[in-house]
């Protein structure tokens, strides 16, 4: 690996991770044994409370795996909790404008009007690091990802992508499908929206990521400039593994 996740994203490396839907440190511990580049705790759509987020981040860090948290809503307390617990970064849902993107970046950074400081957190080494060391380490490590999943965001994509401090744009293709009133993620309006995000990322030098239901689509979107792929989930692995086992046993 060439540096941390933030540096790898900036360098244009292909990053492959998965969503964790089960609020269990054991599930995270097991997934940390794989070759996945990162995990993303889905606190937006799965029942993660603060203690579950804390335990799962602990397990990921123990396994040496970068861990993002998709927060349930873009609020300062959600961002603070994830980062204080030691997450590599956050994925923020429903960023619709440049102003919202700028507010997200401010919430994720230390400084006037930004993230509150505590030296007693896991991220700060439980008081074992100096303030200067923790501030520098946080700036070097913290990954801020804006999820693009609304038509308003597509309309404002250049304003969003031009905000300093964003480490990636992440396409919420399913939400876009629903928002456009489409029946399928392959609807031309949805495909055009995803292409618009990829193009804006290239114009402004911001990495682009996405969830894809079909792994076979990765080469196509990599050609369009996407480099961050959060694919599948622990739930999906269990379902597909069970289905494969039954098929093998019963023919």
* Multimer state: single chain
CATH-derived topology: TIM Barrel
Fourth CATH level, the homologous superfamily: Phosphoenolpyruvate-binding domains
Q: How does the major sheet shape up?
A: 8 strands, parallel, barrel
Summarize the structure.
This protein has 251 residues and is α/β, with parallel strands linked by helices.
Any chance you could write out the topology, listing elements then pairs?
Blueprint: H1 5-10, E1 15-20, H2 25-31, E2 38-42, H3 50-62, E3 66-70, H4 76-84, E4 89-92, H5 98-108, H6 131-141, E5 143-148, H7 151-155, H8 157-161, E6 168-171, H9 173-179, H10 188-204, E7 208-210, H11 218-223, E8 226-233, H12 234-250
Parallel strand pairs: 1-2, 1-8, 2-3, 3-4, 4-5, 5-6, 6-7, 7-8
Fold and architecture overview:
The protein has one domain: Alpha-Beta Barrel (TIM Barrel), CATH 3.20.20. By secondary structure, the protein is of the alpha/beta class. It has helices at residues 5-10, 25-31, 50-62, 76-84, 98-108, 131-141, 151-155, 157-161, 173-179, 188-204, 218-223, 234-250; strands at 15-20, 38-42, 66-70, 89-92, 143-148, 168-171, 208-210, 226-233. The longest helix is centred in the C-terminal third of the chain and has 17 residues, at 188-204. It has an 8-stranded parallel β-barrel with strand order 1-2-3-4-5-6-7-8, surrounded by 6 helices. Strand 7 (208-210), helix 11 and strand 8 (226-233) form a beta-alpha-beta unit.
